[in-house]
């Protein structure tokens, strides 16, 4: 997986960097990890809490009650970890999470969009040939991997600034987890049509978000 970082000053985006890995050393502040029920998202939340002794982490997922790893982490860091319900396919839950964060913290210093789907048993499978592509798979992958993250940025962007209970910084950071297979220029193997197309769309959405006001 690769991630892309957007750094914003108080009004407009001023820096853009990409790397295969990013440090989770983030001293203090308010961090949001979207898609933290398991996998990379859960590990981001864990590292942000374990590697730093200050700051708060907000972890979101579609079904918090079923996220056992996240609930265990909440038991370990009850004062520094908040868990919120957020379903990328339901915009009202994104909006509700943003409202809750605003009321409690007033701002965000770091936003990590970690959700993504490649396969779901009996629903979505990585296509090995073109004749296995289905419209429902394309639409679901696009909704979760591309549309959802940009909607999260949309609703969280007013919070990405210095202020509230966060710490003073020159920039707020948004990190969207993409993938190398989302590259149009580096796609020699083919296959995984739904996943590749949705990640390519996410990369384009990130470029379009570079100039939004915060």
The mean pLDDT is: 79
Biggest sheet: strands side by side, in what order?
Answer: 2-1-7-6-3-4-5
**CATH-derived topology:** Rossmann fold
CATH homologous superfamily descriptor: NAD(P)-binding Rossmann-like Domain
The CATH class: Alpha Beta
CA distance, first residue to last residue:
27 Å
Helical stretch count?
Answer: 5
Helicity level, as a percent range?
25-40%
Q: How many domains make up the coordinates? A: 1
- Low-confidence parts: 1-24
Topology as a string of helices (H) and strands (E): EEEHEHEHEHEH
Helix and strand content put the structural class at alpha/beta
Overall form: globular
Number of strands: 7
Task: Describe the overall structure.
The protein has one domain: 3-Layer(aba) Sandwich (Rossmann fold), CATH 3.40.50.720. A hairpin with a 4-residue loop joins strand 1 and strand 2 (13-19). Mean pLDDT is 79; it is low at 1-24. Helix 3 (91-104) runs parallel beside helix 4 and helix 4 runs parallel beside helix 5 (193-208). It is 34% helix and 19% strand. A 7-stranded mixed β-sheet has the order 2-1-7-6-3-4-5, sandwiched between helices. The chain is of the alpha/beta class. It is built from 5 helices and 7 strands; from the N terminus they run E-E-E-H-E-H-E-H-E-H-E-H.
In short:
By secondary structure, this protein is an alpha/beta fold. The protein is built from five helices and seven strands; from the N terminus they run βββαβαβαβαβα.
Topology at a glance:
Elements: E1 2-8, E2 13-19, E3 30-34, H1 39-50, E4 56-61, H2 68-76, E5 81-85, H3 91-104, E6 110-113, H4 135-156, E7 172-178, H5 193-208
Parallel strand pairs: 3-4, 3-6, 4-5, 6-7
Antiparallel strand pairs: 1-2, 1-7
């Amino acid at each position: 997986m690769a991630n892309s970082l957007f750094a914003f000053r108080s009004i407009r985006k001023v820096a853009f960097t990409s790397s295969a890995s990013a440090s989770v050393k983030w001293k203090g502040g308010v961090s949001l990890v979207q898609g933290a029920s398991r996998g990379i998202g859960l590990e981001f939340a864990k590292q942000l809490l374990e590697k730093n002794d200050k700051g708060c982490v907000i972890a979101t997922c579609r079904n918090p009650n079923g996220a056992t790893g996240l609930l265990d982490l909440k038991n370990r860091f009850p004062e520094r970890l908040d868990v919120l319900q957020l379903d990328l396919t339901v915009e009202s839950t994104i909006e509700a999470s943003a409202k809750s964060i605003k009321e409690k913290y007033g701002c965000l210093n770091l936003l990590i969009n970690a959700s993504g789907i490649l396969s779901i048993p009996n629903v979505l499978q990585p296509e090995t040939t073109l004749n296995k592509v289905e419209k429902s798979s394309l639409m679901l992958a696009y909704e979760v991997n591309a549309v959802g993250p940009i909607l999260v940025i949309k609703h969280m962007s007013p919070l990405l600034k210095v202020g509230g209970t966060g710490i003073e910084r020159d920039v707020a950071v948004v990190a969207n987890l993409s993938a190398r297979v989302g590259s149009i220029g580096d796609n020699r193997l083919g296959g995984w049509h739904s996943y590749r197309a949705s990640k390519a769309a996410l990369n384009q959405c990130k470029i379009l978000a570079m100039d939004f006001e915060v």
